[in-house]
Write a structure and sequence with these properties.
The chain has about 475 residues and is an alpha+beta fold. The protein folds into three domains: about 160 residues, no CATH class; about 120 residues, DNA polymerase, Y-family, little finger domain (Dna Ligase, domain 1, 2-Layer Sandwich); about 90 residues, no CATH class. The chain is built from 14 helices and 14 strands. A six-stranded antiparallel β-barrel has the order 9-10-11-12-13-14. It has a four-stranded antiparallel beta sheet with strand order 3-6-4-5. A hairpin with a 4-residue loop joins strand 12 and strand 13. The longest helix has 22 residues.
Length: about 475
C-alpha cells in the first residue's frame, strides 16, 4: 500500500527508506559477530545466516543452549531473530521460518543428546507438515503447487516424482532432496574455514594482557595437538579475541618454516601483543578467544633431528626462529630474503621478498658445471658510464677509463648478447668479462649496436667479480 494510506490507518507509523547495501552490511556485521560461536558462517541474503556448529555445541552446553544464547543475545542487540537446528541446511532454513517455536524446558547435556538421538527420525515428519514455501521455492513455483492442491511438503512427498518435476521444475525437486539430506548442499562460508582451530569461552570477561597470554598458551596447546594428528605444522596463525562490545580483534603471526611447538608460537604472540597491546581497547573485556591455523604445511620430522655438528651453532630451526621473532617485531615486509626472477635484464633478475611469505616463487639456482662464475655477485644499479677503446668498433675493449683511472685489459671473454625489452624500447647489450693487469675482473657491456643510430653506443661497467 502507499505510504499515505498506511499513515491514514496508523498516523504514528515510522517510515524508513530501503537501503539494500546497508542491509547487506548489517547482515555481514551480524555474521562476523556469530563467528564467536563457530568459524563457519555462511551468508544467506537478504536476511539469513547458516552456522555450522558441528564440533562446537559442547562448548556451550549443547545445541539447544547454543541456539537459545544466539537468539537471546541478538534480541538484546535489537535484532529480531528465529533460529533452528537441523541435520541439513534446507531443513534448518525451513524450521527457522515456518515451524512453531516453543520454549523447551532446560535439559542436561546427556538428556539433550538422548533426545536428539531419539528425534532423528522426527525432524523429517515435522518437515513434512510445513508449507511448500519452506522448501526455498520461488513465488511462482509455490503458487503453482498450491493451485494444484500441493500445499504442504507431505503432499509433495506423496506426489509422483516425474509429474511433480514436470510441473514444478527440477529446482523444486532438488530443494526437496537437499532438505531431506538425499542430495548434499555445498555452502560457501563468509571466510574460508581454518584447517585447524581451537576455541575457548570464559565465564567472566578477561581484560589484562597476562590473562590473554595465558589463554593464548592454552589455545596453542590445543591447536598443536590437532596439528600433531594431521602431521602438519603451522605457517600462519591468527588469534581472534571476541569483545563484549561485539567487535573482534585479530592478531596474526607468520613463520618461515612449519612450526609445531607451543613455546615458539607463544614467543611470536608475545612480541605481537607487546606492539598492539595498547590498541586492543579491552575496556569491556573479551568473552571468548579462538586460535585459527590459517595456513599449514607438511611437517618433516627429519628437520628436527638430522642437524650436523657444524650447523649446531646456527641450525635451520634457530635461523627460522630469529626470522619469526624479527618479523613479528618489525613487520613481515621488513625482514626479507633474496628472490630470483626469470628476467633477461640482470638488474631485474633478482629481488627481495618477505622472509615469511609463501615459497611458491622460490627457484633453486644450480651452479655452473665448469665452476666458472658467469655473473658477478655485486652489481651497480644503474651501470656506471666508462670510456672504452677497442681494436674494432664491435670488438672487446682493450682499455677503459673508470673513476678517472685508466685500466689495461689483459684478458676478455664475450660477447654475451642480451636483447632489450622492445615494449620499453630498451637497447641490445653486449656483455664482456674482462681482467686488468692487477687481476681485477669487471663485467662491462656496450649498450646499442653500431649503425643503429647516429650516436655511437656507450659503454658501462655493470658489476665486479670477487
Amino acid at each position: 500500500m502507499s505510504l499515505a494510506d498506511a499513515r491514514a490507518i496508523q498516523p504514528k507509523l515510522e517510515a524508513v527508506e530501503d537501503d539494500p547495501e546497508e542491509d547487506a552490511r548489517a547482515l555481514d556485521n551480524v555474521a562476523a559477530w556469530c563467528e564467536r560461536f563457530t568459524p563457519i558462517v555462511v551468508l544467506d541474503p537478504p536476511e539469513g545466516l547458516f552456522l555450522d556448529i558441528a564440533g562446537c555445541s559442547h562448548l556451550f552446553g549443547g545445541e539447544e543452549k547454543l541456539r537459545a544464547e544466539i537468539v537471546t543475545r541478538l534480541h538484546a542487540q535489537g535484532f529480531g531473530s528465529r533460529a533452528a537446528i537441523a541435520p541439513t541446511p534446507g531443513a534448518a532454513w525451513a524450521f527457522a521460518r515456518y515451524a512453531k517455536q516453543k520454549r523447551q524446558p532446560e535439559r542436561t547435556l546427556r538428556e539433550s543428546l538422548q533426545a536428539s538421538l531419539a528425534a532423528t527420525e522426527d525432524w523429517q515428519t515435522q518437515l513434512a507438515n510445513l508449507p511448500v514455501e519452506a522448501l526455498r521455492l520461488d513465488s511462482n513455483a509455490a503458487a503453482l503447487l498450491r493451485r494444484l492442491g500441493l500445499k504442504t511438503v507431505a503432499h509433495i512427498l506423496k506426489a509422483p516424482r516425474s509429474s511433480f518435476t514436470a510441473r514444478a521444475g527440477e529446482n523444486a525437486m532438488l530443494r526437496l532432496d537437499q532438505a531431506l539430506g538425499r542430495t548434499p548442499e555445498a555452502l560457501r562460508p563468509r571466510r574460508p574455514a581454518p584447517p585447524v582451530f581451537a576455541l575457548r569461552r570464559f565465564l567472566e570477561p578477561i581484560f589484562t594482557a597476562d590473562a590473554i597470554l595465558q589463554v593464548t598458551q592454552d589455545l596453542c596447546g590445543d591447536a598443536i595437538e590437532r596439528l600433531d594428528i594431521r602431521g602438519a605444522g603451522a605457517l600462519r596463525a591468527e588469534l581472534v579475541l571476541f569483545g563484549v562490545d561485539g567487535r573482534d580483534r585479530v592478531i596474526g603471526v607468520n613463520v618461515s618454516k612449519p612450526l609445531r611447538e607451543v613455546k615458539p608460537l607463544m614467543r611470536l604472540f608475545r612480541e605481537k601483543l607487546n606492539i598492539v597491546g595498547e590498541n586492543l581497547n579491552a575496556e569491556f573485556g573479551f568473552e571468548a578467544a579462538r586460535l585459527d591455523i590459517v595456513r599449514l604445511a607438511e611437517f618433516d620430522e627429519r628437520t628436527r633431528t638430522l642437524v650436523s655438528g657444524a650447523e649446531a651453532s646456527a641450525s635451520a630451526e634457530q635461523i627460522g626462529g630469529i626470522v619469526d621473532v624479527l618479523s613479528s617485531r618489525l613487520g613481515a615486509k621488513r625482514v626479507v630474503r633474496p628472490l630470483v626472477h626469470d628476467e633477461h635484464a640482470p638488474e631485474r633478475a633478482a629481488g627481495w621478498r618477505s622472509a615469511v611469505a609463501k615459497n611458491d616463487q622460490v627457484k633453486s639456482v644450480k651452479p655452473p658445471a665448469d665452476g666458472v662464475q658467469r655473473r658477478p655477485v655485486r652489481l651497480f644499479a644503474p651501470g656506471q658510464l666508462i670510456e672504452v677503446m677497442a681494436s674494432v668498433p664491435d670488438g672487446p675493449p682493450l682499455r677503459f677509463r673508470w673513476r678517472r683511472v685508466t685500466r689495461e685489459v689483459v684478458r676478455a671473454e664475450g660477447p654475451e648478447r642480451i636483447s632489450g625489452d622492445w615494449q620499453k624500447r630498451e637497447k641490445t647489450r653486449d656483455y664482456y668479462r674482462v681482467e686488468d693487469k692487477q687481476g681485477r675482473r669487471y663485467w662491462l657491456y656496450r649498450e646499442g649496436l653500431y649503425g643503429e643510430s647516429e650516436t655511437p653506443p656507450r659503454w658501462y661497467v655493470h658489476g665486479l667479480f670477487a
